[in-house]
């Protein structure tokens, strides 16, 4: 009886294999298993290590070690040869053994390279078990270790090799370095936790359960792993929910975060353009997006305006929004909230009150934004931050480096010695660009200019320290609002032990909020979107009036005229601090110019109060292990 069943199974598998072969040809794909010896050379391998016998996932077996029998199989190891061949006879005999009491017990022998397996012995065993949909197969594994490079794929694989002894699962393979420690946190484990057998089986079961909706929604066409997608899902839901949801509920939850899963496969779209009024033709008037007459907008903050300059600046921006749009907008505020459940509850309350837009003004609220966005895709949720990889939450920030360039040019023009101080805030995205832009501006007007860099996130009295060193012209932190110029903000000169403000960049959040809300009111929200599958980061500058520079009354007339010329040049596009660099490159700049004397501080050098922001927005955030209170990015 088993022989007949085995022959019938071969007929079914052959039909499936030939179908897969034809489909591969139609799509321009290689129709056979890959051959490891044809993929790598000795120069690509740093060494190899024998891992011994273990269960490996069959769907990660992609090829053979040598060319040998590759034409006998489709790319997914289903048979291609006629039933009357010797190959088919051996396949059927193996299948008969699998159906009998003996079963297929002998492990195959294979090589692993970058998390994929290439069979040296046991191709037909793989084929038989694959035809039955077996999830795993016993294998003796030899790992081929790739030569180290800075390539992200190599870095992610090296991290996988470090994590593998903790999990003993090939399922936990990511495409981005830093993901495994995030998974440990999402599961409630410490970074160095070694999984028990029960934990291993539990995760494997949840992973397999998640894989079905992932593939159903088209995940197999994305250049990411299922583990990548699981981690995105776990940023919103818990693993306990994963294994307790029904199939329909799980599919619905995966759909809720699908935009963020797809965003993993593409870069974050940095949008530097703001919505503009365009002349409409007849067609445009006919198909004009639906406009709204009034919007309810909520502002969410973990800070209080009376205690935080940052929160005060954003609240003034809210008031400006109300003034400009008058009866077309109604605002509501939820301030002084703790990130996490309290912030989530406030967002839910705002939505119950009818809020159609939520502005959250600090990066620590991104976790609450993510969870709320998954529950309420109809609500537009934005977070004031940069480089957040979520398509469901748009982020916004300002190109303050443009105003810093002008301030640098002013400093260079006023400096006799060429020695200028700079107090930087924190090593987060955009700050290195501001430092470099200031230095370029200073050298534009004074080729001898040298910048002495100190960090307020490392020492509380950075400005006083520069003054003690004899630096008399210092770029301090930017003014939060134009009415604070009397304090030592921005570019300052020290005279007789006192600080005199000369010029300062400032943020105009009112224009940012007005532009964004107007885009929704006038049906232009989608015009500000990015290509499908990409997260959106608005990064607006002088041309959008999101930032500007305030000049002090004591500034010499010639220098004032120079600042005006530079400002107009940046606005009209004829002048750029970094003329050949794309916005994404400027935003993620992590090196400093040679004329800047100083360096980016390491995480362990930061003051305790500065560390949470560096974890969320730091240029090296992926290298910092997450802590329990952090949202998982």
How large, in whole angstroms, is the Cα Rg? Answer: 30 Å
- Shape summary: elongated
Terminal Cα separation, in Å?
55 Å
The average pLDDT is 90
Indicate the structural class.
alpha/beta
Question: What portion of the residues fall into strands of 2 or more residues?
Answer: 15-25%
Q: Quick one: how many beta strands?
A: 20
Tally of helical runs: 22
Q: Classify the helix fraction into a percent range.
A: 25-40%
Main sheet: strand order: 7-18-12-11-10-8-9
Low-confidence stretches at least 5 residues in length (pLDDT < 50)? 277-287
Largest sheet: 7 strands, parallel
Task: Describe the protein.
With 633 residues, the protein is of the alpha/beta class. The chain is 39% helix and 18% strand. The protein is built from 22 helices and 20 strands. Strands 7-18-12-11-10-8-9 form a seven-stranded parallel β-sheet, with helices on both faces. Helix 1 (2-26) crosses helix 3, helix 3 crosses helix 4 and helix 14 (341-352) crosses helix 15 (366-375). The longest helix has 25 residues, at 2-26. The two termini are 55 Å apart. Residues 277-287 have low confidence and may be disordered.
